[in-house]
Amino acid sequence: MADWSDVGEAYAASFAALCAGAVGAVLDEAAARTEGRVLLDVGTGPGTVAAAAMARGWNAAGVDAEESMLATARRLHPGVPFGRGTLPQLGIEDDTADAVTANFVLNHVPDARVSAGELARVAKPDGVVVATIWHGVTSPLRPMWDAMLDAVGLDRPADKTLPAEKDFGRDADGVAEMFRDGGLVDVRARIVAWDYAFDPQELWNGVEGGVATVGGIYRAQDAAMRARMTDAYDRITRAQAGVDGRVTVPHRAVLVSGRPA
Ligand SMILES: C[S@@+](CC[C@H](N)C(=O)[O-])C[C@H]1O[C@@H](n2cnc3c(N)ncnc32)[C@H](O)[C@@H]1O
Question: With a 6 A CB cut-off, is 92 part of the ligand 1 pocket?
Fold first, then answer.
C-alpha cells in the first residue's frame, strides 16, 4: 500500500489527474441511484470528487485519513467542507449521506470488505455507495516505470499484496463480490475506461514528490541515482509522446455501486 503522508500537493499536481478520469462516471452512477443530494466523498485526496459533485448541485463534503491531502483539498476548494475520516472507522454517524463515494481508495486499505461495510453504514437506507478500483493487478503505467527502473539497473521491491483472505479479484465480478461480502446489496459493477494523456514533467513532479510506489523508490535513492532515473524517464516518455508532447496510456477501472442492507 502506498504511503500518503505529506504528499497532498505533489499528488494534486500529478496523479490526481489520472484518478479524475473516473469522476464523471462515479457521479453519474450516484445520481442514477439516489434521489437525495447529500454526498460524502471518502478518501477524498485533494477533493476532486467532492468539488465536482458540488459543481453538479450536490451538497458535498469530503474526508481523508491524511492531513496533507485535507490541507490541499481546502486550499483548492475553499467552498467544500473537508474533515478527517479514516477507514475502516470513519467516526461519522450512521445514515449521513445519500451518496457515499470512494474513488480509488478501497485498493489502498488493509481490508476492503470491512471498509465497504463502513461506507454503507454512513449511507442513508435508500442511499448508494459508489467506488472505483483499478482493473487488473498492476497499473497500466507499470511498464513505463519498469522500463525506467530497468534502464538504471534498479530492482523493483516486491509488490505489497494483501493476505489471501483479505484480497479480492480486480475485475467486475471480484469487486462486486467484495462489496457483497462487505454487506452491501443490489450490487452492480462494470468497467469504465478512458485515455489518460499526461505531460511527462507533470507526472514526474509527483514522483519527485514521493507519490505512489515509484515515488517511494525515487525518494529512497541518492542524488546521482535520482538524476539517472530522471534521465531514463525523459528518454522513455520522449519516445512515447505525441506531437503535443503528451503521453497517452489507456486506463480501466471497475466502478461498483451498492446499497446498505
Ligand atoms: C489514490 S488517492 C485517491 C484520492 C481521490 N479519491 C481522488 O480521486 O483523487 C487515495 C486516497 O485515499 C486516502 N486513504 C488511504 N487510506 C485511507 C483510509 N484508510 N481512510 C481514508 N482515506 C484513506 C489517501 O490519503 C488518498 O487521499
Answer: no
